[in-house]
């Protein structure tokens, strides 16, 4: 098999993308480094709300496959308000786990699911 064919058959993991072995390693962000609005949203998640947007807490399908693979329903998404925006904007926190108020892991995106960072507690 030529080198070109091997490169197509066995792609390597891309930064922020999906490779042959699944999602690439995600960067992390400390809770204290999140924007103030994301910190408020994270606290609301842990306390069970109330949330400002009707879509908050709905199932996130992970269609981009940038987060670790889990069964549908594992991930839920929450809006992080963006100052100056009238709509939901692009910022979200996506949490995964069996307990909604005590998630296994939460991820922050400020580019509407194009990339994620693990929120370190």
Number of DSSP strand runs: 8
Strand order of the largest sheet: 3-8-7-6-5-4
The CATH superfamily appears as Microbial ribonucleases
Percent helix: 10-25%
CATH topology: Nuclear Transport Factor 2, Chain: A
Structural class, please? alpha+beta
Radius of gyration in whole Å, from Cα?
16 Å
Shape: globular
- Tally of discrete structural domains: 1
| Averaged pLDDT | 84
pLDDT < 50 stretches: 1-22
Distance between the termini: 47 Å
* Main beta-sheet strand count, sense and barrel state: 6 strands, mixed
Strand content: 15-25%
Which CATH class applies here? Alpha Beta
CATH architecture: Roll
- Spell out the helices and strands N to C: HEEEHEEEEE
Number of helices: 2
How would you characterize the overall build of this protein?
With 121 residues, the protein is of the alpha+beta class. It has a single domain, classed as Roll (Nuclear Transport Factor 2, Chain: A). Helix content is 16%, strand content 24%. The protein contains 2 helices and 8 strands; from the N terminus they run αβββαβββββ. The model is unreliable at 1-22 (pLDDT under 50).
Short characterization:
The chain has 121 residues and is an alpha+beta fold.
